[in-house]
Amino acid sequence: MPYYQWYELTHAALSPARVMADAARLYYRNPLNPLAHTTPGKSMAAAMEVFERVTRRYGKPEFGIESTVLGAVRVPVREQVVWERPFCRLVRFEKALPAGKDPGPKLLIVAPLSGHYATLLRGTVETMLPDHDVYITDWVDARMVPLSLGTFDLDDYIDYVINMFHMLGGDAHVMAVCQPSVPVLAAVSLMEARNDPYAPLTMTLMGGPVDTRANPTAVNQLAEQRDIEWFRRNVIMKVPFPHPGVFRDVYPGFLQLGGFMSMNLDRHVTAHRDLFYHLVEGDGDSADKHRDFYDEYLAVMDLTAEFYLQTVETVFIRHDLPKGEMNHRGQPVEPAAVRNVALMTVEGEKDDISGVGQTEAAHALCVNIPSDRKVHYLAKGVGHYGVFNGSRFKGEIAPRIADFIRSHSGHTVQRAAAPGPVQAPATNGGGAKPASAVAAKSPPAHSPDAAGVSEARDDLTRIKGIGPKVAETLNRHGIHSFVQLATLSDEAAARVEAELGFPGRIAREGWPTQARKLAG
Predict the structure, then answer these.
(1) Which of 160, 223, 414, 470 is the most exposed place for a label (fewest CB within 10 A)?
(2) d(CA 449, CA 431)
(3) Taking a C-beta distance cutoff of 8 angstroms, is the pair 425, 166 a contact?
(4) Confidence of residue 451 (pLDDT cuts 50, 70, 90)
(5) pTM reported for the whole predicted model
(6) Selection from 24, 93, 12 nearest residue 55 by Cα
(7) 3-state secondary structure of 314
């Protein structure tokens, strides 16, 4: 049955009723209307608002963070998109600081891709912003992405995270909130296995399903009681017209929201009943708190079917990561390879989505991280959302994370050789930073320099797709100039790409073509 179409039809059919309810609400709240000052009038206005709110489709909220406080000074904050792909934008909250003022350690907050928008972490960003240079993954609603822009699965998610680390330049810290704990741990494991210099300094995993076999919750048990085909048959639907992503297979946000609300249905019913009473009684503060929370909570997005199904099967049904059976594009994901990245895990004692012990399991997997670079914190009496938001997060959890980050911000990593061939995924062009000239080592016998090519040295980072570390890799292969790169042989290109870990990337991004233009 086309449930998504029925959902859209029902929403459209209720539109006239919502308009009438909103008009009635305004009528009964108009101070010039004598009924507005009576209990029946207030009750009618309250009922109309509750009806309009429960039948409304909530759009994506704004972060709305316009300033933050540094010490005793309030400084403006500007949202800046610093990296973008079809299914995600990386947003930086840039503080207007005096020249030379340190914005703090770079902190990448990886928001969950599980139905809600990244703005659900608004409080997380606001709390971490004063002392950190904060970036957040702003995931895109799948129904808004045209089919022509391709697919997005768990492997793509991991690739996105790795590319973000490359863009941030290797001196960043990462905080994964809930669902991203698995792909972030996978990304860091792959980067450490490749001896990637862009791996983060610290990794904080919060309320995430690293090993859902530990204290399984109702969410975990549902996944274990069904096979992947059940999910494919029952929750995957096609985006209807007129959304830009029409015909894309998705896990609809309204289904995800229904699942969330059904876990605590009595609480949500009570909250809306209380909203009615608050409006009748004129308790504006309580009513505003309700509106703020549910404006965010009821705003949901669709997930691509391939991402949802792969995540359910890999994380919740097969438990691939804790079993040592997870692969990323044919390469094993081995948390034991993580040895330089400090690890912190945070859990809530009353978390009913990711049970106690599920996130802490990361410590048992990352066996090669020294014990003095591992921290676990269990927040007593805290539920799932309290792990990353609210007063307990601000007062107890965030200070511990900040201290953990600061403790390892000055840590200089001497990366030991990783087992197997060294592979470092190349950074995307948008993340390339200007680099000063890099002193080259003696070229190997197979390099262009050894073949008698000009010794001129150019700034290779002017080529889109080449960052400082990639330029160093090219230098190690004896490639220092635009002329050398423009005349690179297929054999030499293959050797470079083998080290970068992205076969075909040189031709795909047109490095020789760009080099020819720059060489004149």
Answers:
(1) 414
(2) 28
(3) yes
(4) very low
(5) 0.75
(6) 12
(7) helix
